[in-house]
Design a protein that fits this description.
Chain lengths: 115, 176, 373
């Protein structure tokens, strides 16, 4: 996939780093996180994958901010970071509550609402 | 190859590898540690983008606090290698991988097709992005985006109370 | 391009030198700690190997190197071996950003007596030292021992809690100096105590212009939080030997144990160095300003380069003396105060130090606003 893309890009893709490089890197990380959310069954690992996706978005925000010369991107990163921290705190509290109830954090064991 | 370019490729390759390790490791503790590694590397990438203050905050908030919480919870649960780490259904799993792959192809393809119109370097910046941006960032955060900042403070307070209420139980962690 | 390569080489060499400085200080400190504790407890301490027992640590190092390799049966190999290495990294990275002396000017090239100059020095140092938790967690989990795990969890909770008080205590200093840059902070503290308050200029020539006189509460909170951050007595709950054998390094021996030791001393050094930079004038000498020192050096030496080198050397020695005083305070406190109970520790961190640090921040902001109006 990556090799095919290189053909479309300018031949100095490797030697000149610009905005597209950061965007490609960010989208690769985002997709990795998304695959983690879809494929993993451990609730904590799924939350970590969400954190990875948020980080990928942060990276593209900062890259845009740098190359557009606007600081709004960095302000957004602040907000995303705060919300990610809040999300992690609540999510982990939920996971701890679930673990106490089921002795398990694999979503395979609590997908039927059996109680 | 100039040092900047070398630095970018070095960090980018390491970031992608450690990002993949988060998803592929069957032991959740290793996943968490490689996610911490990814976050440190993304902080380093922030430095290459002249966002030094954000890089420091990334280290303190993500690597130093959020991921430590994750690792602590994982260690409290004492989870070892999981047998059911991934989804069970082979067909649905294939669909998931396929859809993720298609998304990646579409996003990267669109970036590649528009690469010529995307900015290659900083043009006509409103603020000087070449030097340190910390002071300007503080000014813009506490003037234009003050309401959002205050709202985040309120959100954090609510979340702190909520997390304590959720995690609290009468008998502590060893309640039967 | 050539200039880049030169800068990169110089910085790499400087990083190695800073690392070696830190590691080489550890044997001296261990000797000081053992002898000092012996004198505090009315014993002799190690006094057989070499003059005053100074070579004891060399003998110890040789012993450490020849100890048997050992890994616990239920340990996780990667984490078990990775943890001691990780213990060294954050302290070294943080220490490298601290200015150790006045910049040396050789013709037109300015050589900084610090690993590297970061414009957001404080944020960087805090960020780098917040990574120290991972070493503890890795050691605790990798050992496959419940005492190690309990010790690691305790240590982590403690470090994360006290990081808040530590960070908030510094905010007052940041407001005062209006910069994140450690070098600028040190430069702001030179000369005698003088400030303008509501249009009146105050000048006390018998006191140095140090941060501790503006931020006494911040300094106290910061210093106390440093003890907790480096897991030293009276906050060494992580290794309370009566309850947890030895905490997160129960299963470690030989050279790996020594690496943890170096990491701990490294944290003490970073904490003391930050204390000096924020509150005690950095590399400055009380009563003497840098221009006075430069004038004197120019009179003593023949060339401008040598004078600059002399100034750098003197400021470096001044910094080292201050650092040594703080290290001695660390050792003295360790052998004087008893250990806290864990709930007392958490209560002190969350219910006492955090509100006081917050109050200090708000008060500083208000006073600065009034003073500048």
């Amino acid at each position: 996939m990556r090799a095919r893309k290189v053909a479309h890009m300018p031949s100095n893709f490797i030697l000149e780093v610009g905005l597209p490089h950061y965007l490609v890197l960010s989208s690769l990380l985002f997709v990795t996180g998304m695959a983690g959310v879809l494929l993993r069954r451990n609730a904590i690992v799924m939350m970590m994958s969400i954190e990875l996706m948020l980080n990928a978005v942060n990276l593209s925000f900062v890259a845009f901010s740098r190359y557009l010369g606007l600081l709004e991107g960095q302000v957004m990163v602040f907000f995303v970071m705060t919300i990610a921290a809040a999300e992690a705190a609540v999510g982990l509290a939920l996971v701890v509550a679930i673990f106490k109830r089921f002795k398990e954090v694999n979503i395979r064991f609590f997908e039927h609402l059996k109680g | 190859m100039s040092p900047d370019v070398f630095l970018f490729w070095f960090l980018a390759i390491l970031t992608v590898i450690s990002g993949l390790m988060v998803v592929l490791m069957t032991n959740p503790v290793f996943s968490a540690l490689s996610l911490a590694m990814t976050m440190v590397l993304i902080g380093a990438l922030f430095v290459t983008l002249n966002a030094t203050f954000l890089a420091g905050v990334q280290l303190i908030v993500y690597a130093g606090a959020v991921m430590v919480l994750f690792v602590m919870v994982l260690m409290l649960f004492d989870l070892k290698n999981e047998i059911y780490a991934f989804t069970r259904g082979k067909i649905s799993g294939a669909f998931k991988v396929g859809s993720v792959g298609i998304l990646a192809g579409l996003v990267i393809g669109s970036i590649g097709l528009t690469a010529s119109t995307l900015l290659q370097s900083s043009t006509a910046p409103l603020v000087s992005m070449s030097g340190d941006t910390t002071k300007d960032l503080g000014k813009i955060l506490f003037s234009q985006y003050l309401l959002g900042f205050e709202a985040l403070g309120a959100l954090l307070l609510i979340v702190a109370v909520g997390a304590v209420a959720l995690a609290r139980s009468k008998g502590g962690t060893h309640a039967k | 391009m050539g200039n880049d390569i030169f800068e990169i080489t110089v910085n790499c060499v400087k990083l190695i030198i800073v690392f070696l400085l830190m590691v080489q200080a550890v044997p001296v400190l261990v000797w000081l700690e053992r002898r000092g504790s012996a004198f505090i407890q009315n014993r002799f301490g190690p006094n057989r190997v070499g003059p005053l027992g100074l070579l004891q640590l060399l003998a110890d190092a040789v012993k450490f190197l020849f100890k048997e390799e050992f890994i616990p049966e239920h340990g996780i190999r990667f984490l078990y071996y990775g943890a001691p290495v990780m213990a060294l990294v954050p302290a070294t990275l943080a220490f490298a950003a601290i200015p150790l002396g006045y910049p040396l000017q050789w013709d037109s090239y300015i050589f900084r007596i610090q690993g590297f100059e970061v414009n957001v020095g404080i944020v960087y140092v805090l960020g780098a030292s917040s990574l120290a938790v991972y070493s503890i967690l890795m050691a605790g989990f990798g050992s496959g021992n419940k005492y190690s795990l309990m010790g690691a969890l305790r240590a982590t909770a403690q470090v994360v809690s006290y990081e808040l008080a530590l960070g908030l205590a510094i905010v007052g200093a940041i407001l005062l100096y209006g910069t994140f840059n450690l070098t600028e902070m040190v430069a702001a503290q030179q000369g005698s105590l003088q400030f303008a308050f509501m249009g009146h200029a105050v000048n006390l020539s018998w006191l140095p212009n140090w941060g501790i006189f503006y931020q006494p509460l911040g300094a106290v909170i910061f210093f106390a939080a440093t003890f907790a951050e480096s897991n030293r007595l009276p906050f060494d709950l992580a290794e309370g030997e009566a309850e947890l054998v030895a905490g997160f390094h129960t299963e470690y021996g030989g050279f790996k144990m020594l690496l943890f030791f170096i990491g701990e001393y490294g944290h003490m050094m970073v904490g003391s160095a930050l204390m000096i930079v924020f509150y005690l004038g950095g590399y400055g000498i009380p009563g003497v300003t840098i221009p006075e020192l430069q004038q004197w050096a120019a009179g003593v030496t023949s060339s401008a380069n040598a004078a600059s080198a002399l100034v750098s050397l003197i400021t470096f020695v001044s910094f080292t003396v201050k650092l040594a005083v703080f290290m001695w305070i660390f050792i003295q406190v360790r052998w004087t105060l008893p250990r806290f109970r864990y709930d007392q520790l958490m209560e002190l961190g969350w219910k006492t130090m955090l509100p006081w640090a917050l109050g200090n921040t708000i008060l500083t902001a208000i006073v600065l606003y009034i003073a500048k109006a």
